[in-house]
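Just wondering, can you check both lines?
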Amino acid sequence: MSMLGKLIYERRIAEGLTQDQFGSRYDVSGPAIFKFEKGFVNPSFRLWMTMAADFDIGEPIAVLLWAKAKLPPEYQELLEVKGAKIKESEVLYKSGLKSTDFSRMMNRDKLRKAVLEEKSLARGLKAFVKDDEIWKIYKPTGREINLLRDFFGKFGEGTKGKYREALRLLREFTGSDN
C-alpha cells in the first residue's frame, strides 16, 4: 500500500464510509478508491490536492507525497524536504490518522472496549479480541495489540485464529509468556 493509499484508506475507515460513499464525495467510483487504497494507481494531482486539503495536509507536503508516489519504489526514499526526509508517520499524525496507542491502557476492560471501537483495525484482530475465551486465556496486553496491528495487520484482515497464532509467535520471539 502506498502512502497516498494508506492515507485515503485510513481516512475512509475513520469516517466509517464504504469505498462507494467515499468516492462519491470526490466524483470517483468505489472501484477507483479501491485502486487508490491498494496502490494500483494514484489519484490525479488535482484530485489528490482536493483530498489532501480535506485531510488537513498542507500543500507543500501534499505535493511532495504525490511526487514521491510517482517515483519508482527504489527512489522514493531519496525524496527530501529541505534536507530532511519526509517522515510518513508525522504526516499520519498531523492529518489526524495516527493510530491509538493501546500500550498506555492498563485497565483490561477499557483496553478491550477501545480495541473493539477502533474503526481502522483488521476484522480478524477485532474478532480475536471479541472472543471471550481467547481474551481470558491469552490476556493480550495493549503493547501486544499494537504489535499485532502494526505488523500483522498490514498483511490483510486475517482471522481470529491467525491473530492467536501471531500472538503466540510474538511471545515466542520476544520471550514474553504473558
Observations:
- The first strand starts at residue 80 and ends at 81.
- Residues 67 and 89 are 17 Å apart (CA to CA).
